[in-house]
Amino acid sequence: MIHLSNDQSKVRIPAAAVRRIAVQILGKQNLSIAFVSNAAIRKINRRFLKHDFATDVISFPLGTDLLGELVISAEFAVGEAAKRKIPVEEELLRYVAHGILHLLGYDHEEDAGKAEMWSRQERYSGVSAP
After folding, report:
1. Digits of tens for pLDDT over the chain (130 positions)?
2. Which one, 17, 91, 115, 118, has least CB within 10 Å?
3. How far apart are CA 58 and CA 73, in angstroms?
4. CB proximity list for 61: less than 8 A, separation 6 or greater
């Protein structure tokens, strides 16, 4: 089951597309996705990762019957989409795929892992490379 919560009001969340991508990547695994504001994700980033800034997506692996939780800043997606001149929905779907891949063990800190992660992220989200 994919549980979505929308704790912000500035951006319309494409719930059906979010669920489609999550199920495509995860199958029947359970996942929670929370869409929040920049202020909310900044607080979470500061508290759990000791980074005092807003970011796009934070993945929390849980390792129970719930694979994990994604916290996504819908507001951050607006800014990035404007910079790239793409639809906000496209940017949000990229964040969903990216966060799920982190939960599955993919990483982009090293060049070898980065190329594979980006390739999968773009394939699953149905968008072009960043």
Report:
1. 999 999 999 999 999 999 999 999 999 999 999 999 999 999 999 999 999 999 999 999 998 899 999 999 999 999 999 999 999 999 999 999 999 998 988 766 665 566 666 666 666 676 544 4
2. 115
3. 9
4. 67, 68, 103
Identify the CA nearest to 61 among candidates 41, 31, 91: 31
CB–CB of 21/58 below 8 Å? no
Which residues are within 8 A (CB) of 13 and not within 5 positions of it... i.e. 6 or more apart?
Answer: 4, 6, 35, 74, 92
**Which residue, among 82, 35, 90, has the nearest Cα to 58 in the 3D structure?**
35
Token pair in block for residue 73: 């800043």
